[in-house]
Amino acid sequence: MLLRRTGKPALTGVLCAALGVAAAELLAAATRPAAAPLVAVGSAVIDATPTPVKEFAVRNLGTWDKPVLLGSIGLVLILFTAVVGVLTVRRRWAAIAGAALFGLAGAAAALSRPAATLYDAVPSLLGATIAGGALLWTRARVARPDRRTFLRTALLVTGGAVLFGGAAETVKRVRGSAITRSRQAIKLPAAADPAKPLPSGQAPGFTSAKLYRVDTALSLPKIDVDTWSLRIHGRVDKELELSFADLLERPLKERDITLNCVSNEVGGPYIGTVRWLGIPLAPLLAEAGVDPEADQLVARSVEGMTIGTPVATLLDGRDAMLCVGMNGEPLPVEHGFPVRMLTPGLYGYAGSCKWVTELELTTFADFDAYWVRRGWAAQGPVKTASRIDKPRPFATIQAGTTTVAGVAWAQGRGIRTVEVRVDDRGWQKAELLPVPSSDTWVQWRYEWKATPGPHTLAVRATDGTGAVQTEQRATPFPDGATGWHTITATVD
Length: 492
Ligand SMILES: Nc1nc2c(c(=O)[nH]1)N[C@H]1C(S)=C(S)[C@@H](COP(=O)(O)O)O[C@H]1N2
Ligand SMILES: [Mo]
Prior knowledge:
The chain is an alpha+beta fold. It has three domains: about 1-185, no CATH class; about 230-375, Sulfite Oxidase, Chain A, domain 2, CATH 3.90.420; about 385-490, Immunoglobulin-like, CATH 2.60.40.650. About 35% of the residues lie in helices and about 25% in strands. The protein has a five-stranded mixed beta sheet. The structure holds ligand MTE and molybdenum atom (MO). The ligand Nc1nc2c(c(=O)[nH]1)N[C@H]1C(S)=C(S)[C@@H](COP(=O)(O)O)O[C@H]1N2 binds near residues 214, 215, 353, 354 and 355.
């Protein structure tokens, strides 16, 4: 009974909201993608999410974190608009109040985005006006007992929503494929300073075609290379502004470098080695003339991420660069197309801003970057770590000699030794496979004479300075996980 009385108005509320959202999405897609309300609300929620919840999401949802977030927002939206639909039957003002709340939330979210302009409120406000108008228009029809009228009304609103939504989707598609085409058309010059050929004797997987992805971008920034530019400013003698073509005129460097995320748990997957092509940063900074007092370089991306890197790490001779290529191709969109920063030896959040458009020279005292404001360490040097990849945790393996294998990393310092421990027997040296430089992980292997029964395997690395990886367990927050990766396996 209750369901019958509330079902129709609830559905109508949801449909009218869908119509408004679709209209707002269409206007934004056609004029300013950054103003699209759904992504704006999602991004605002991400920014406001407390660090422990974010950590939990990255840990337990992996790359599903974004679909789960959008799904949850959708669910809240459906519940809210269903209630507004039901209230509207009784009171006309419920439609107006509901729509206003709805529009203001979207507008506030859009305006809270780092690169927002006043216009960004417009799509949400327009969408809310349409949703509110539709609610008032359907109000009398929904109240009537006859089924035909309701059906016709619902179909009309649904049709409008599908039409607007479809058009918005098409506009986004067209823009996306234009970016894909312009990316494919880019001819990257050969590196003046090419990567050394990889030393022979590596196992498969030393470098890979794909890299893990971690970022806060709910929709990938679609950047037009022809209008993109990089501004180097702040505490410099001379501001520089470079186009993509300007960058490509400079000598390029190609390197195999391991990148990893500070959020990676011990044994976790957020690490990978790929071949990067980029413009060395130190000469650019020399050209701009960095104020000796400026100890922080803040990289800003088009969607408003800020990543702060110690200037000293960019000038100490390591291969810090502005990358334009990955694995012989222009950067993939999800890895920062057209240009990202890369600072070997620092976790991604502290040195590798994707979709970068600004480099500002400042100080750590004057500016806290995005993750620092959320409690993460201001500087993010990579900690020495190691991982067992084979056998897999809880695997059942055959008795006899079996190869235990994995990786170890301490970018910049390099890995001197890796040791494996089986149960409580002592540490045994593993064999290290060759590496091109200290900026990549090292593959290791250990021949284990596996005897029947359950076994516990642990690994630890010693870096190039002689420091042994600590056993002390630490969570990823605030400056990177520590502890020995330990797995159990059963031998038949
Ligand atoms: N613009 C932007 N750059 C970013 C991030 C981001 O959220 N936005 N995340 C950083 C983090 S935390 C990491 S670990 C690396 C991941 O780079 P990848 O996704 O190319 O592997 O990008 C860094 N650069
Ligand atoms: Mo990260």
